[in-house]
Amino acid sequence: DAGVTQSPTxxxxxxxxxxxxxxxxxSGHKSVSWYQQVLGQGPQFIFQYxxxxxxxxxxxxxxxxxxxxxxxxxxxNVNALLLGDSALYLCASSPQGLxxxxxxxxxxxxxxx
Amino acid sequence: xxxxxxxxxxxxxLEGKNxxxxxxxxxxxxxxxxxxKQDTGRGPVSLTIMTFSENTKSNxxxxxxxxxxxxxxxxxxxxxxxSDSASxxxxxxxxxxxxxxxxxxxxxxxx
Lengths: 113, 111
Prior knowledge:
The structure holds 2 protein chains of 2 kinds.
Chain A: E1 5-7, E2 10-13, E3 19-24, E4 31-37, E5 44-50, E6 53-57, E7 64-68, E8 74-78, E9 87-94, E10 103-104, E11 108-112
Parallel strand pairs in A: 2-11
Antiparallel strand pairs in A: 1-3, 3-8, 4-5, 4-9, 5-6, 7-8, 9-10, 9-11
Chain B: E1 4-7, E2 10-14, E3 19-25, E4 30-38, E5 45-51, E6 56-59, E7 62-67, E8 72-77, E9 86-94, E10 100-101, E11 105-110
Parallel strand pairs in B: 2-11
Antiparallel strand pairs in B: 1-3, 3-8, 4-5, 4-9, 6-7, 7-8, 9-10, 9-11
């Protein structure tokens, strides 16, 4: 069975641009969470979605938004990119909520120049 | 201030030796504490998960301990292998389920 997949693997954007990252959860998992991991630090929680509804939000500005689709895949959007948004963006899926085991994808490496 | 602090920040050990990583947390109350292994440029992979009532949990050569009174956890790696070179992250799940991650300990195993 396939694990969590994310696309693209890498991308480079310019300050002020917008970016969309995609995540496909493990089959049967209904919860998707997004995390930002700056180099040398642990991941920071951004969003959790369960059954297409937002169930949790971390301390991130409104430039960050996400949604979950009927097939439980998810997109993370970041508007008006800043240099500080450069990071590894991780997606994790779980059968239900965050209290279940989280299975992480390989991440998307975003570089903002 | 981060609610999960890990030490040391990094360490180097020889293949075959043991090592212990520390995690101190202030998150309370919490649902569970997890240890993840993260290879460079990859997503974290779960090693152990313990509820607040558990004291120890093993996964092969990895053994995690938890002292909920002192709010400390440790991860012991036995007979290290080159493939153990990675970052090890302590994660605490508070009751609101917004996971709190430590910054990780980078372990380098040398032959």
